[in-house]
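thread: overnight batch results

M.L. [08:02]
morning all. the overnight job finished for the chain we discussed friday. pasting input first so we're all looking at the same thing
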Amino acid sequence: MIEEQSSSLLKISKGYELFNNSVDANLLAELQALASNFKSDALHTQNENRLLRIGIIGQIKRGKSSFLNSLLFNGQDVLPKAATPMTAALTKICYAQQPKALVEFYSKNEWGKVKNLADTAFTKHASYENALLEYQTNKAISQKQGVFIPSPAKPVLSDEEKASIELLNMVKSSGLNVAQYLDTSISLDEVNNNDELVDKLNNYVGASGEFTPIVKSTELHLNIDSLRDIEVVDTPGMNDPIISRGRRTQEFIGQCDVVFVLSNSGQFLDQSDMSLLAQNIPNKGIEDIVLIGSLFDGALLDEYHNYPSIQQALPAITTKLNNQAKSNVDKVCNEFSAHQSTEDDNNQSHLMSTLQNALPPIFISSRCYDLAIKPEQSLNEEELHSCQQLNDMFADFTFNASTFAAVANFTKVTSKLDTVKAKKEQILADRFNNLLIGSKREVKQKLVQIADDVTYKRKNLLEGDVESLAKKQQAVVKRIEAGTVKVNSVFEKYSIQAEKTLTRLLTDINQNAIQVKQVQSQSGSREESYTTSREVSDSSWYNPFSYGSTRTVISTHYRTVNYTYASVHDAVSKLESFVVDTSKALYDVSENAIQLGLFKQDIKASIRDMFDFSDDDFDPEMVLMPLNNAVERITIPAVSLDLDAHINTIRQQFSAEQVEGDDIAQLRTEQARVVTLLLQDISVELKQCIYQIVAKLAKEQSSFIPSLTKDLVANVEQLKQDLTHKEEVLKGYDDVLQKVSTDLAGLDFNQ
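M.L. [08:03]
and the structure it wrote out:
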């Protein structure tokens, strides 16, 4: 069956190689990749005695590793958090009586690309430094002459360039001989138990592991009963900046039977989540999706002040998040329906219906799960801080193990996992057919795209008037160039909007800092001892020589003393909370400073408004196809903001538990000083964030019209070439359309 279906799909894709002059090269390559991927995925589904493969997917920083540590390993850091998203490696986990691990390093080719990207980034930075030095040298002279010279713009690096620099810097700091390990793998099998394996593994995937920057993937075999009959794939994030790792993730997703999709509870399944799912899931035949809203404790801390008690807050916030999740899914589904082509919409509709069927999500907190099961003395500083924050929410309520467990909500997750395991045989039995249907859906989509492209080129060829087409294209180009102001206004609107949003955040942060600077003094009382002394007679009747002698009697007394003090712990906690809350706000606002979907829609609208689509003499395809291509090339950088290092700085400032008297004023001075330093650093990071987004928009703005008009002109050049062999090219187009029609008719979705 696999060979038959693989051959059928391969035959479809191979058939178009005869028409490589007629078919777009990218579409042809994508079609051929579908057939190849189907065979490898299908072979996996047919392995005898294979395990049920569960994929844990989501964007970077959605708590996937923490979720698995809580779900499978009772909160133990078997899957350590990566030092940064740049060092996260895909991990496959399964059961074995004897624990072991297999670590795969990058290939020479993959690491070569990392080095090349880093070199490109270093070159950009060096050019900037030289330009900056020249600017500083000439600045004073220019000012005297009354001439203004703008300062050089800092280079804007891609996410993969940033990742490559980080990986290389980690290698340099460790002194690792990379060439010795590329294209190899290492087996860690000389261990007696899981703990020993985790200790060894830390050197390969831990935050400060020597080999961490060059590890591409790991495979863990652990003696844990919950892993029997299943294997779990922990992905590094579907928006992984390292392309080769991202491809490996997609390969594994294609072989998953069930996926747990993790998304931030506070912004559940936002546009970025849905876009990534749409790219990775629809045609993999995955019917079982479990939606997990992670980091629920963060949502609770954001919303608790709206409710009088924890008993009211938990159900109310859960209901609110459920409604938001449904609204987000419905909204994105409607957007897909409104803005995708008919075939593309059909292709995505399966994903949309699957997601809607998976609602409502299970909202969980891995942190609260850990707090519920760990003794207080074993909590680390980060966990203690979270515990303090949660306990500070309601004055008359203190969390215990059972209430932490209620917020964690892992009983629902384990119940869902048990249900999935119980359905294993049925899921595995249906997997091949689901995969086949999904692959056929995607093949159908590519065939329709090929037909649309060829139909447009065939129409131009039949009209056969290069001069007329060139005039039309020139008129279109002139109209677009004349309307550059409209297009630029869209870019500028979103640039100003992003800058205002981020600048407004800085104002909010400064306002919040006022409260953080305040150190409240408190009244306390304590028992103090003090001594008194008095002289008493020391004479006795039986000793005449003692007459007139005295002795000193010392007495100890106790009294209650009232005093004023300030808690250093409270001051530090306020600073830490300020850093954590600010970091979250920076990340959220920078991530959503520009709604890319709406931005692209506005760009398209600004171009469409330049033309009269009701005019019979106007060919919409002349504009719409190149326009879609140009708009899809627009990207906005994802800014990474991390203030965690400041917490360590804060803790180094203070050591005592509390201070009294004149020391209170000193504590207040120190608190204000640290807040000022934090605000300076935050301001620098925020301004850099604003610069990156504005600079990227400016770059996209300058290249958008030339990119669009280049595509328009290319159509004329294509026609010129086609007309030199008109009959031959026309026959090729007709043959392609006939083949597409035949292939579409032959795609039986009921097989």
